[in-house]
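To: structure subgroup
Subject: Chain for Friday's discussion

All,

I'm putting the inputs and outputs inline so they're searchable in the archive.
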Amino acid sequence: MKRSDLTSLAIEALDNVGQGTWAVLPKGRWTVLWSEGMFDIYGLPRGSEPPNNETVFKLNHPDDANYVARQWRKLLAAGGSHSWHERVVRPNGEVRHVIVKAVELPPDEDGEIWFLGTMSDVTELADTNRLVESERAFRFVAENIRDVVLRTSASGQIEFVSRSVKHLLGREPESLIGHYVSDLIHPDDAERISEAFRAQLAERCQVRKETTEYRVLKADGQPVWIESSPRLVFDANDNFIGWVDVVRDITQRRAADARIAHMARHDCLTDLPNRVEFDEQLAKALSLCRGRRRLAVLCLDLDRFKAVNDTLGHAAGDALLVQVTKRLLANVPVDRSLVARIGGDEFVLFVTGAGPEEASVLAADLINSVGAAYEIEGQAVSIGLSVGIALAPRDGNDPQGLLRTADMALYRAKAEGRGIFRFFDAEMGLRIQERRKLEMDLRRALADGQFQLDFQPLVDLASARIVAAEALVRWRLSDGRLVPPDEFIPLAEEIGLIVPLGQWILQHACHVASTWPEHVRLAVNLSPVQFQHPGLVSVITSALINAGLSPSRLELEITEGVLMQSDLGTVELLHQLKALGVRIALDDFGTGYSSLSYLRSFPFDKIKIDRSFVADMDSRADAAAIVQAVASLGASLGMTTTAEGIETQAQLDQLRAEGCTQVQGFLLSPPLDERGFRALLSKETGDSLAA
């Protein structure tokens, strides 16, 4: 027999108990089957066509329309069973209170999903009478849904429970009859649920619109989260005689919600608390120890971590961070500390009850532990750790203030050599303020035109002629004072201003060089940060075109840091620049660890001997040997060799004897402004180099 036939028979049978019964099939316009009792409830003529869903919804009380629509959406979306209280308005204007109970039936032979339900008019009769009269309908619905349906006495003894309780709790329904519901509730939730039930009973609220979530215990003692919607039952004299409940297992949903909540406050890689969680826990810790106990905040930053990411890849970097996390957790006191990851290679922790002595010992232990060698993907990896420390209440009593001062101390630790720890002191705050002011001034300087270029000559030793000039940026403040380049260039690199500043230098220097004699080249230094900017080639090309300067007259000086920072992409970029006709020089040669290896990876046009070797030639044999070796190497590879920092005639004579190609230094000329350099070019004789 088809589902429609069975449903019709069920409706006819249930109609004998004096209530309304219906069935719907949500397909296009719903197919609606109504019992005779449904027509009576709605005040419609018996025997007429069952109304469609639009008509039925119009018969709802206007104040209940949105609520009823939500109940239907919940039933259609979640399935199972659902019940609610609503009011209907008959055509004659009479308002009737009804209880609706609906259940999703298993798919029929055609795969269609039906919903079967009852509607009880409770306007004059007590719910208990209606429940007794509709016992067969109640049991039919209860035993055919996935949720657990139970009915209790006024004292909470279970009188009926559906078969699905075996799946929920691992208990046979018969074994629970006569037991109290309270015996099944988890002890940690018992008082909360008891209070909620007493409040519902005191308000004589038959049906709560909001469900309650709590834990019950399975047969083996394991907790299960459930969603409950108890409906109180009163007799004809308004005496409370028990309740009916529909219980749904929401354990998986609660676990998913808990996981989502955890992920929102924890780092997905290390599972450490994130900045949000750390700030809240630090605030709680400070409130508990305020005025009575001390607390230390440590900001941690990994040294040389970027090199691991660049050489071994991000997967190796992630694996390293996981190992670092384990070492951090192994070295902090478990019962009074919290470690968090707040950035790529940045961590922070606090320890309650810690003063300067304990904080010092802890910082030293962390530096030693994190600094020990690692094995990542079969390769030995070495990194370091720098630590900044702030103490409460000495350095502050609020989370943001302590983190700020600890970060200042970390900045000092990194500036003083890394792999060390430093405590915050008041002078740091002043220096940080000065640095921030310098940063703001630096940002304004480019817009206000406070930068200028000086040019220092490079002289060819063979011809004694000026063959190039290095462009050197100068920052002159509005009061005329000059800010040293070693003070503002690193800051410009750090805050990202070196890219627009470098673009200005290239454009202005090329424009100036275009007015020089054809044989004089322009040398411009490029920062490693500029090489990370994707528009570098176009910036250089644009500067050359706008100035009308031949690419062969531009020399770009790079340091070993440019080659250390990346991969084949850097070498490819250098080849693109050479393809333009630009010359490439390796600056400060010999000061890095891999200078010789870089000469094999890229055909440089020039290598510049660092001034430190030139300065020590007279006093150290090894410095003189290095200068001789570099000059010989340059000649063998067909590269120009330029010695920097020439200050004495003896240095000049020795460099000429060693075979250096070019020289640069104060002995020949200090850096000159545009006008001064043009004047030098115009009167150049080279007599001073003839000796």
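Points worth raising on Friday:
The chain has 27 helices and 27 strands.
The longest helix spans residues 426-448.

D.
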